[in-house]
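Quick one: sequence plus nicotinamide-adenine-dinucleotide SMILES, need structure tokens.
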Amino acid sequence: GEGAKSLGVAAELYDSFADIGAHRHDLVVGFGGGVITDLSGYVASTYHRGMAVAHVPTTLLGQVDAAIGGKTGVNLSYGKNLIGTIHQPTAVICDVAFLSTLPGPELVSGMAEVIKAGLIGDEQLLDLVTSRAGDLLAQDPELLIATVASAAGIKASIAAEDPHERGRRAVLNYGHTFAHAIEHAASFKGIRHGEAVSIGMMCAAYVAAELGRIDGACVESHARALRAYGLPTSAALDLETLERAWKHDKKYDKGVRFVLLNGPAHPEAGVAVPRPAIERALERMA
Ligand SMILES: NC(=O)c1ccc[n+]([C@@H]2O[C@H](COP(=O)([O-])OP(=O)(O)OC[C@H]3O[C@@H](n4cnc5c(N)ncnc54)[C@H](O)[C@@H]3O)[C@@H](O)[C@H]2O)c1
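Reply:
Sure thing.
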């Protein structure tokens, strides 16, 4: 669980590496969900000033998101992922057979990130996951392989363009500015990350529509895809509560910045939004 992403567990791993005489030319293998790939990546990047790491992600979120792109991290009591490095894995091996034992809600939560990949980068992927939700939830193997490959490919190509997030990589945070604030306000209890991302992407869609960047059909394509997986598309959100959380956001830069679409699969990062547009978007979310 998330509790394993700590400096304490990292220290235990360093000691075990020392015990077994691990050397900087050895390979660390991160086998598990995003928690494990974040933690093992962090430990690999710091032990002996950096060892190679390969990931074998076993959750959908790990396969399409967490294991790819080189961000590693552990949490502090002050917040998530406050300590971390960028350390690219030597290999990421995704086998969808691992997903057969994944609890349904974890699969659905990962689907929110797949839908995000479609919304920011691939209209065909978005159409596929919208129209074949039943088959994907039933884990049709061929369909799952194609879906994981497309979504992972989008993340990998965007992260490769901008590994240190100086610009374009920020588009991967689509829906996440709202999602992180929602999770923060809920103290990370009672809401899964995928559900918060789902609500966050709907908020971002309404904001973009308010600013005339996308039309109603594009907003509807968000809702159709998310609803197909039973992900939430409405919520009663209080702007002042969100604003308090945004002040602590790593990406806060003289005000909160959003990733918005300028049309299907045309994201733009770093957009400052006038407060009334956010207010109106939140009214549409209620
Ligand atoms: N580094 C990045 O770019 C990045 C991106 C997104 C998320 N993350 C991080 O990823 C983490 C979330 O990852 P997650 O959603 O994979 O959660 P997780 O790693 O906590 O796994 C979810 C649960 O599923 C279990 N599990 C894992 N594989 C399983 C399988 N095949 N069958 C049955 N159960 C299985 C785990 O033990 C855990 O209880 C967060 O810490 C988040 O910060 C990192």
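Residues 1-2, 5, 32-36, 38, 58-59, 61-62, 65-66, 69, 71, 80-81, 98, 101-102, 106 surround nicotinamide-adenine-dinucleotide (CB under 6 Å). The domain at 105-286 is CATH 1.20.1090.10 (Dehydroquinate synthase-like, alpha domain).
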